[in-house]
Amino acid sequence: MATAGRIPPIQCLLTFETLARLRSVTQAAEELCVTPSAVSHRVKQLEQIIGTKLFGRADFSLTTEGSEYLAHVREGLATLQKFPGAAGQSANPGKRKLRLAVTPTFARSILIPRLRQFTEAYPEIDLTLQVSIPLLDVVAEDADLIVRFGTGRYADLEHVCLIKDDVTPLASPAFVREHGPFDAPEDLEGESLLRSPLEPWRTWFAAHHLGWPEPVDGSQFNDIGLMCDAAAAGMGIALIRLKLGAPWLENGSLVRLGSNTVFTSNIPSPHAHYLCWRTGTMDRWECAAFSDWLRKSLG
């Protein structure tokens, strides 16, 4: 039960913030220059004082309440670091800056619908969101964290897989009515297939034992969102990753080609989205906080 009006000891708050950031009792103990048992004791003491479970599992992932409380703790600790008369203080020195470079359709379909959860949980972090082009890996050089789409072979950066996806052909309802029915993969022969180097058709062809070459004619797009818009406008059939295409499927501007199992089965994309960063970036708690939040949010 929480103790009414009691302010938790500062060492408990510092230990909570350190353990939430490092997710290791041993590393937290080393940083705080205490024993591992002291770390565990302080966290249990804090949980007893506030009457809330802060960590949910053995990997020290935060509970929902823990994430919310962590934001308040960090804000409070940042306030305590301000000294009267300190030179060079900004208008809001407690704010942390976090710069993200994100591929356009990932931002539109996946990140933005969830982002309010992060900004509410971490009001002390100011986000700058920049668009990167996945095909060319065009990113701002000063980005702290980068979402890339590809094979995951990034020797220059540390990275973790965020989300894998399945691909399936999609088109506008009007296109399906005009050109359908589509009952078998062979029915796509001669149709207008929209192209993107980000999602080659050969993946889908091979899964359905079609010996067709990669299309070389027709409209091509270097952004999946633009290809979705083009398909929704009736320009042709697009091979779309379902999680990225969810907004178009949900509003009905794109549909699957047929109701049989051929077109309702999903084929794994050979590529995935990865969160990438330079060595040392995760030493900054705002970067580690966003990484943990995003991975949990994506399940």
Descriptive notes:
This protein has 299 residues and is of the alpha/beta class. The chain folds into 3 domains: 10-80, Winged helix-like DNA-binding domain superfamily/Winged helix DNA-binding domain (Arc Repressor Mutant, subunit A, Orthogonal Bundle), CATH 1.10.10.10; 96-163 and 273-297, Periplasmic binding protein-like II (D-Maltodextrin-Binding Protein, domain 2, 3-Layer(aba) Sandwich); 165-267, D-Maltodextrin-Binding Protein, domain 2. It contains 11 helices and 7 strands. The protein has helices at 10-22, 25-32, 36-50, 64-80, 104-121, 173-179, 202-207, 224-232, 242-250, 261-264, 285-297; strands spanning 96-102, 125-131, 145-150, 158-171, 238-241, 255-256, 267-277. Strands 1, 2, 3, 4, 5, 6 and 7 form a 7-stranded mixed sheet that branches. α5 links the parallel β1 (96-102) and β2. It is elongated. Mean pLDDT is 85; it is low at 86-93.
Keywords for this entry:
11 helices, Arc Repressor Mutant, subunit A, about 300 residues, single chain, alpha/beta, 3 domains, 7 strands, D-Maltodextrin-Binding Protein, domain 2
Q: End-to-end distance, in Å?
A: 31 Å
- Mean pLDDT level: 85
- At the fourth level of CATH, the homologous superfamily of the largest domain is Periplasmic binding protein-like II
The biggest beta sheet, please? 7 strands, mixed
Q: Given the structure, what is the number of helices?
A: 11
**Judging by the overall fold, what is the CATH architecture of the largest domain?**
3-Layer(aba) Sandwich
Report the portion of residues in β strands. 15-25%
- How many structural domains can be distinguished in the coordinates? 3
Which structural class matches the secondary elements? Answer: alpha/beta
Spans of at least 5 consecutive residues whose pLDDT stays below 50 are: 86-93
The helicity comes to 25-40%
Order of H and E elements: HHHHEHEEEHHHEHEHEH
The shape is elongated
Oligomer: single chain
* Overall number of strands: 7
CATH-defined topology of the largest domain: D-Maltodextrin-Binding Protein, domain 2
- Rg over C-alpha atoms, rounded to the nearest angstrom: 24 Å
